[in-house]
Amino acid sequence: MESTYLAETNIEIINPDLPRGHYRHVLFDFDGTISLIREGWQQVMIPMMVEILLATPAAEAEPSITRLVTDFVTRLTGKQTVYQMIRLAEEVEKRGGQPKDPLAYKHDYLDRLWARIAGRVSGLKQGQLEPTEMMVPGALEILAALREQGVTCYLASGTDEPYVIDEAQALGVAGYFNGGIYGALDDYQNFSKKMVIDRILQQHGLSGRALLTFGDGYVEIENTVTVGGLAVGVASNEAERQGIDAWKRQRLIEAGADIIIPDFRETEALLGYLNGSA
Q1: Count of CA atoms in the C-beta half-sphere (13 A) of 164
Q2: Among 49, 115, 157, 277, which is 20 to 30 Å from 17 by CA?
């Protein structure tokens, strides 16, 4: 299916037959969709895993290990962090090592990530950083516009729930999510984005057409498309805060995104289209 662009915008319409004008509940992913606090997390996770695998008895050369880790970290992005750590433990065992519990690996990773992002969080809380510096451009504007429409907004993230709540508060966006904020649990089988979507639809007796989702990961896009909802892929370039991340775009299209956007700078045109305008 050939895509087109909404006139004079960077809003790419992948599925022109998408169900417009029906949504009353809106689900957002957090990291990379709204928040940039954790930008660069891959540069923490991948080296940690490479280091662990290189220490196993039957480790390959570093370039080979790096390719392997990069591939599975990338493919599992959007799921809870623990799934990447489960895969790490499996790879350690394959190479004759004694793996830690995946939750232990997750907590080691979070400690390393915190060293990278602690200054961002404290800077926000102390007023030294403007929230917009740590957000996908236009995120505040779309949240405010959706609140004006009277829709119910939800936040669901593969990041651990206490961190998601804390970082949403630091950015000043927690109050927009009147439907709730949901994040990963150590008891990981009791949380998934699919569970959040199913709960929204069941609690309100809705069909999937009433759900609109914004996300930069394949999981929330795929889950939304599966129930017949409207999925907007946010192919944000997190480092530059400008333009499209080509890898994200392709992955989001493969997941079934109806629309691709680089960010929320064109909120008025986007919501006009989603609400049924030509």
Answers
A1: 23
A2: 157
Last residue of a domain, one of 125, 149, 165: 125
186 plus 250 within the same structural domain: yes
Stated pTM of the model: 0.92
User: Would 130 be classed as within a structural domain?
Assistant: no
pLDDT by position in tens, the chain (length 278): 567 999 999 999 999 998 889 999 999 999 999 999 999 999 999 999 999 999 999 999 999 999 999 999 988 888 899 999 999 999 999 999 999 999 999 999 999 999 999 999 999 999 999 999 999 999 999 999 999 999 999 999 989 999 999 999 999 999 999 999 999 888 888 888 999 999 999 999 998 999 999 999 889 999 999 999 999 999 999 999 999 999 899 999 999 999 999 999 999 999 999 998 75
Question: By the 8 A CB rule, do 38 and 109 touch?
Answer: no
Domain with 199, as residue range(s), is 4-36+135-274
208 and 243 inside one domain: yes
Instruction: Count the domains in the chain.
Output: 2
